[in-house]
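Journal club prep — side note

Before the paper discussion, L.F. wants everyone to see what a predicted structure for a comparable chain looks like in token form. Sequence:
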Amino acid sequence: MAADQVDDSGELSPSLTPQGPRRCAGRGVKRFLYLLALPLAFYLGVLTQFHLGPDFDPSVSGLLFSQPTTSLDSRTLNEIWQTMQRDYATRGLSGGDAFDGAAKGLVHLLLSGKYADDFSAYYTPAELKRNQDFLAGNFGGVGATMAAKDGKLIISKVLPRTPAEEAGLQQNDVVTTIDGAGTNGFSVDEAVAKIRGAVGTHVHLGVLRGGLVKDFDIVRANINVPSVESRDLAGRVLYIRIFEFGAHTADDFRTSLNQGFAHGDRKVLVDLRENPGGFVTAANSVVSEFVKSGVSVSIVGRNGKHDDQRVSGNGVAFTEPLVVLIDGQTASASEIVAGALKDNHRAKLVGDRSFGKGSVQDDFPISTTSTTRPPTWPWTTSLRPPSRSSDRPFARFPRGHSSGPAKGSEDNAELE
């Protein structure tokens, strides 16, 4: 026992400890110091890299700090980043922007270039929140749908009773500037991110119309996106337009059906044109209103197993005549609905060939601050020849192929 240890009686006993335990204690201290040195060296590497930045010798930084790797060469990526910090003409490059750019490139460029998968994506927390707000049907914006066409950003639809309509925006307007910055090279997502914002704030849009550029000063408002719109048509026809398959679509669609039938409607016309998709569960709920039994979509995972989404059997329109309208922007979940209704001989499809996606995505929260959206699991229906916390990043990847309509995209149009 060491001079400061306590024996069984609770008294200090400076002379009772044999030498063996002293050597063991010494080894334990050394082991503790060694383990303590590892996080200290790691932190020192982080400090030198990010605080000293481009002025620090990368060869020394490599000795102090290197991330664990599997098949990725993180040391080379780190060297590229340090070279940019040290030698790029503009100083003060953002490490956060660099990380997001690298993550987006890893997920999208690799999977798109090698596997022709344009739907997997990495989302920052802000991007994830925008996506969640859209599917929840509530966000601050101007109330117009934007799409990309021939390299230009086009207003594809202006919602009624919104700031966009009140300001005078029109369908087919070309958005050339946002708050004075040109939109050349902007994706739809990038433009929408700049147009959306806090309720009550202003956004300035430059719009090309009829060869002339017009300026619009629009005050952002809370935009409640209707997932469903319905009205009675002549001939006892109930017309229901589904704008997207979000959190409230199933309930809104059931309400529209019940109201129409209460008015005496006996035929149903479902409009899925320009519907970019959404939740597979919402799509299955809509199919369940018309199909009494069976499978709405079959999702095939990477292991080849089928995840069959079965209808609920609790629908209210199993026998009413049904027609579904589709076009080239009918995509993803809306294609699942159209394909399932056709496969089950419940609907006649009218319109143009749909977008053609044929896959669904799952969201995978990342342990830091974002999300990834990989793999695409294919699905199958007759339209295609024989899926969280907003302060974390995530990846969205396809979960499988589906047996359903043609392949579709959730990203061909977005509401701002």
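L.F.'s comment for the group: The longest helix spans residues 19-52. Keep this in mind when we get to the figures.
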